[in-house]
Design a protein that fits this description.
The complex is a heterodimer.
Chain A: E1 4-15, H1 19-30, E2 35-38, H2 55-63, E3 81-82, H3 112-115, H4 117-121, H5 131-145, H6 171-183, E4 188-189, H7 223-226, H8 228-233, E5 237-240, E6 243-250, E7 256-263, E8 269-279, H9 283-292, E9 316-318, E10 321-324, E11 344-345, E12 363-366, H10 389-398, E13 402-410, E14 418-426, E15 432-437, H11 442-462, E16 465-467, E17 510-512, H12 527-547
Parallel strand pairs in A: 1-2, 1-8, 2-5, 8-17
Antiparallel strand pairs in A: 4-11, 6-7, 7-8, 9-13, 10-13, 10-16, 12-13, 14-15
Helix pairs in contact in A: 1-12, 5-12, 6-11
Chain B: E1 2-3, H1 7-19, H2 29-41, H3 62-75, H4 84-87, H5 89-99, H6 102-123, H7 132-143, H8 153-171, H9 174-180
Helix pairs in contact in B: 1-2, 2-5, 2-6, 2-8, 3-5, 3-8, 5-8, 6-8, 7-8
The chains are: A alpha/beta, B mainly alpha.
């Protein structure tokens, strides 16, 4: 098939339009840089989101043949490969805004503790930046996207003066707070990118709680609402939809000269040329693109002379436990929808005196689904014994009393946890599929035991009862949707792929700005840090363009 | 090398994780149908739904449908508020089964047949024809989590499945969520009041 080439050479080409790619496009265009943005999908029309749809209305709609927008990429269209005994649950969204359309919105600053953990414990490499490097960008991101939270400030979770008011806790969250206070376990207001006040002309959050359906009023940050339209308004952004990037093309000098991509509707192969390429396709897809970009100058994948690209995949381990508070049984049902997630957060505490154990790194906890559910009775209702009027009464009494605890723990970066490309397995365009080989080790097993102990202590202190409790049963690998590590930043080019500005050590006109750049996962949710790093990296890129040093 | 699960199952598991049921790993047909019911009940996920007026079952035979209606109403009966039958839980269950994979659907059908078979042995008639006391007697055995007898094994498993689907279906109807549980159904407020009980502070 004839490859359609465009003779135009764009100043910057950005791959992906989620948190990282969207930020790159926004920050570059507002500084006068022309950008071509390629996204593998289309725009999701938020007027079609099922945000304000009651469950029974949703069922009636489906009976009429209507469907909510299909956010998640179907593995029938784009498979990925895992070893048979090591499943990995990969969630991908191809479309404008990527996963920010339906993200969990938890927005936690990383601290010096997170960035320098490797200096302390000697495991793999530290981040090449300090908190002071990224703090100004956290300030800017929080002001731009609107994050609610409290006035707390600690060595784990640095404070911020730019947070919007936090919503009050629900009854069950109050009881959890009380129990944790008794134990000396820290608990703070949740920090979440729900705009509890209007930001940037977008209406404030109205507490419908259905953020998982996407927000039809754009009251939480989504790149497609909060970044791309502003970038388009500069007239410096061109967005090409349904452009599935396969490879970054390089010239004889080894530098990137553009990308090869496929039209998702027609399958046609195309090329686009650029002076610099910013990669923000999310961890696994960015890594796949880099590893598939082999050439005589880059036989091991683009900029991968160090052989670190694809290695050190680190996600997080998570427990999902639930139960109820007898003290809240039979109380009147309240509208607990709130900001569609926990209003409280347990920051990491296992490094503090008297709390340490024989493992590295740490865990925090979230408490989503605490309170009266908006989607029917809690899943635990089916565990109430019996049937008939007595069951009906018990379900009603327990409806306001449910709580959940979800500890998230850091998984260490291991060289053997790897994304590779499988030459024998290709997608519909003939491009090798990503193969994910990922497992946890002894450190994570020890941490899981501490997580389980903590769950049990908190529940006991708060006066709760665990239901269907399976101690230490981890959720599926990959289910936190926080993949990191496979194209990490670092000071040493032998041990890292990117410098402190997300710029490839070996290919100076390529920047990788998504979660793959993180040298470690931490226990925290990454999107706020992805936004801050992408902003910082593209400030650097814009400066290099201005200086003509690229 | 195995390809990852197909999306419908993955969506169901994702919903499970969000709801923290924690039974996904068990992998039995009961858990699969329970998970699918959750997916089905949520407006945010794709799936086929129940039909409004002039409805006829898509997968249940008339006899199976009658058994489902009877069982669902026994699990969530009419009290001061309508029960499963009036709330249309039979339609919900038919919709879930329509979406289920054939193997899981067949397990459910075998469970329905088991109910009749057991009822004929115990009471000399099909389940729907048995009287209230007989219904209660059989369901009491099946709802007993300590009942590990060989003769009731299939029934205990089936009861878990239909109970799960009934509870999920009923409490996601307007009757179940608003009338019975007392949810105000409001999807917009200016401020979130939160807990105002001094005793919870």
């Amino acid at each position: 098939m004839q490859v359609l080439r465009s003779p135009k050479v764009h100043p910057v080409l950005v791959i992906g339009s989620g948190a990282s790619g969207g930020m790159a496009a926004w920050n570059l265009t507002r500084q006068g840089v022309d950008v071509l943005l390629l996204d593998a999908g289309e725009r999701f029309d938020r007027s079609t989101f099922w945000t304000h749809v009651q469950p029974w209305e949703g069922q009636a709609r489906r009976a009429r043949g209507e469907r909510p927008p299909p956010f998640f990429l179907d593995t029938a269209e784009q498979p990925y490969v895992t070893p048979p005994d090591r499943p990995f649950q990969l969630s991908r969204i191809w479309g404008h805004g990527g996963k920010t359309n339906v993200w969990g919105r938890v927005s936690l600053r990383y601290s010096e503790m997170d960035l320098k953990a490797a200096d302390r414990d000697g495991w793999e490499i530290p981040w090449p930046i300090s908190y002071s490097d990224i703090a100004p960008y956290y300030d800017r991101v929080e002001q731009l996207i609107g994050v609610c939270g409290g006035r707390d400030d600690s060595e784990v979770l640095p404070g911020s003066k730019y947070l919007l008011p936090a919503p009050a806790p629900r009854c069950g969250e109050r009881l959890l707070q009380k129990g944790m206070a008794k134990l000396g376990i820290p608990v703070v207001a949740g920090r979440r990118a729900n705009m509890t006040r209007s930001v940037g002309g977008f209406p404030a959050c109205h507490y419908c709680g259905n953020c998982g359906a996407g927000c039809d009023t754009a009251s939480f940050f989504c790149s497609a609402d909060h970044l791309l339209p502003a970038a388009l308004a500069t007239k410096r952004l061109e967005i090409r939809s349904n452009a599935v990037v396969a490879r970054i093309l390089t010239g004889e000098d080894g530098r990137a000269r553009g990308v090869q991509y496929f039209d998702r509707r027609t399958g046609a192969e195309r090329e686009a040329l650029a002076k610099a390429v910013v990669v923000g396709a999310s961890c696994v897809d960015s890594t796949r693109i880099l590893l598939n970009s082999r050439s005589s100058r880059h036989p091991n994948g683009l900029g991968n002379g160090s052989d670190v690209i694809g290695r050190y995949l680190c996600e997080q381990i998570r427990l999902n436990h639930y139960g109820y508070f007898p003290a809240l049984e039979g109380t009147p049902t309240r509208n607990d929808r709130g900001i569609g997630g926990a209003h409280i957060y347990m920051p990491r505490f296992n490094h503090r005196a008297g709390r340490t154990r024989d493992y590295l790194r740490g865990f925090g906890a979230q408490f989503w689904n605490t309170g009266a559910g908006a989607f029917g009775a809690h899943a635990g209702s089916v565990r109430i014994p019996g049937f008939g009027a007595a069951l009906k009464t018990a379900i009603k009494r327990r409806h306001p009393a449910w709580f959940e605890i979800h500890p998230f723990g850091e998984v260490m970066p291991y060289a053997h946890n790897r994304i590779t490309v499988d030459e024998s397995r290709v997608d519909r365009y003939g491009v090798p599929l990503p193969k994910i080989d990922y497992r946890i080790g002894e450190n994570e097993r020890k941490m899981t035991a501490h997580m389980a102990d903590t769950v049990e202590e908190i529940v006991a202190a708060a006066g709760g009862v665990l239901v269907d409790y399976r101690r230490g049963q981890l959720d599926a690998m990959g289910s936190a949707i926080h993949e990191h590590g496979t194209c990490r930043m670092g000071a040493d080019p032998k041990r890292s792929a990117l410098n402190a500005f997300n710029q490839m050590h070996e290919v100076k006109n390529v920047f990788v700005v998504d979660g793959s750049a993180f040298p470690s996962a931490s226990e925290k949710n990454p999107t706020l840090t992805i936004l801050a790093l992408a902003w910082r990296a593209t400030d650097h890129l814009a400066e290099e363009i201005r200086r003509g040093s690229l | 090398m195995a390809r990852s699960d197909r999306p419908s199952r993955r969506d169901a598991l994702r919903t499970l994780a969000a709801g923290a049921i924690g039974t996904a790993a068990a992998g039995s047909w009961v858990d699969a149908l329970s998970a699918l019911a959750h997916t089905h009940a949520r407006a945010r996920t794709a799936g086929r739904g129940v039909q409004p007026a002039g409805w006829t079952p898509r997968v249940l035979s008339p006899r199976q449908h009658a058994t489902v209606v009877t069982l669902a109403e026994l699990i969530i009966p009419r009290t001061e508020t309508p029960g499963a039958k009036a709330a249309g839980v039979d339609r919900f269950i038919d919709g879930v089964l329509h979406e289920a994979n054939p193997a899981e659907r067949d397990e459910f059908f075998r469970g329905l047949a088991w109910m009749d078979e057991r009822s004929r042995i115990l009471f000399g008639q099909d389940f729907v024809q048995a009287d209230a006391a007989q219904h209660t007697a059989l369901l009491t055995r099946l709802a007993d989590e300590d009942n590990t007898t060989e003769e009731d094994h299939a029934g205990v498993e089936f009861f878990r499945a239909i109970k799960s689907m009934t509870v999920t279906g009923y409490y996601t109807t307007e009757v179940g969520l608003r009338q019975e549980l007392g949810d105000d159904g409001r999807l917009a407020m200016v401020e979130f009041a939160g807990c105002d009980h001094p005793e919870h502070l």
